[in-house]
Structure formats: C-alpha cells, structure tokens
Amino acid sequence: MDFDHLCETLRRLALAAGEAIMEIYEAPDLGVTLKADASPVTAADLAADRIISEGLRAAFPDVPLVTEEQADTHTALAGDFLIVDPLDGTKEFVQRRGDFTVNIAFVRDGIPVRGVVYAPAQGRMFYTNAVGDSVEEDGTRDPTRVGVSLPIRVSEPDNRALRVVASKSHRDAATDAYIARYEVADFRSAGSSLKFCLVASGEADLYPRLGRTMEWDTAAGHAVLLGAGGRVVRFDTHAPLGYGKPGYENPFFIAHAPGVALKHP
Q1: From 210's CA, which of 124, 147, 174, 177 has a CA 20 to 30 Å away?
Q2: Which residues span the domain enclosing 190?
Q3: What is the pTM of this model?
Q4: Would you say 198 is a known binding-site residue?
C-alpha cells in the first residue's frame, strides 16, 4: 500500500463527502427514511456513501471495501480492507446537533492503521498521515491543499481526576455505573466517532462504550487514537479490539490514554 496516496485519497474523499452532507444538512428536507432495523438513514448517508465508495474503488480497485450502506460488502474478510461509515451519528444529523462525522479507515491484519474522521459541521478534521502519526488539520476545506496540520497526542492522565467522554445518544445505566468507578474531574457527551478524537487530542482521557457498535462506526476513530498513542481494548478482557470479525459487530470496548488505570468489569 502506498500510504501517501492512501492518506491523500482518504482526506480528499472525506472533504467531498462532507460537502455533500452539508448541502443536505442545510436544506429543509433531510430525506429521512428507516432501514430494515428501524434505524434512520438520510439522503446525506447515501450521497456520501456514493462519493466515498466510488472514489475508493477507483483509487484502490484491488483492496476490498466494506461500507455500512452497502449490505453486499458485509462479507467476511481477512488481510487488508477499507471500511467506511459515510455518516456516523445519523441521529445527531437528523436532530441538527452538528457532531456527526465522515469515517474512512484502512485495516491491516485486524488493526485500523490509517483513518480520517471529519466533522463537517464543526470544521474539525482528524487523520493519520502517511507515517501513521495523527494530526488535526485546521478549518481548510480545500481538497487540493492541505492546511496547517498540528500533531495530536493523548494526555498523561491523573487517575485522581479523569476526564471522561461518553455517547450523547446511547448513554445507559451500565455505562454510568462503570464511569462511577473512577474519580471523574470532568464529563462531557459527544456524538459519533468524535469521542475517539477527543481522547486522541488529549481533551479526554477515557471513553467507555457499553453498547452495540459496528466496525465501520469505530475503525477510523480507532486509527486516529492509535496514531496519537492511545489504545482501544475489549471491555471484558482488556485485549486489543480487532477488526474483520464475522458480522463486523464489536464487543463492548474502552478507548483510553495509556496512563489510565482501567477498572475490570
């Protein structure tokens, strides 16, 4: 894999998808329908998916692609593959809350080694560069010109006063009970894969997820966190979270800065 070409392509497609998403976000009708599992899908999900999937297939025709919105791509894979959630945080999008993201990642041997997370309504873009280090780019939205990119790094947490981030739309009693086992100095809610990026940028120390997620929800944020020195582990065993699982469903997990003293279930 040519990682320079890969990272340039992921960034460019994320920006293009974000532009399409924002055109629909700012329109009166979001084009909301329901999938078979009763979860919402919008015209923006489908437009972004078309842009990203066509772009990836043209740039990397020999690399398998898994994307949330195309069920025929959800077959078991091994080795290298690309994985996409064209609009993560559809509920936030529908409620016009702004913290939704475009997620594109490249997985090698079960590990998301490169990825981009773009929050177009917030103007925040996080990605791994060609050598695998994570950066946050400024508000530049020019696909032909990279803006100022600042390296990001996880925090060195004080376990007597952790900063915790959790889901905005999927909080439950089990998550609250687990968070209560820590000394918490600050708590914030966020939607979509931005939670990984807040840990990656040192704005939070701990993100536990005790709820259903799919690999396309997490791969890009996971890659960004790894590139910033962070970790994502299974909730039950604290073993690294892997990718390419049958059905692409994740177990519960914890994303964290390495200095956090994790509590066992």
Answers
A1: 124
A2: 162-256
A3: 0.94
A4: no
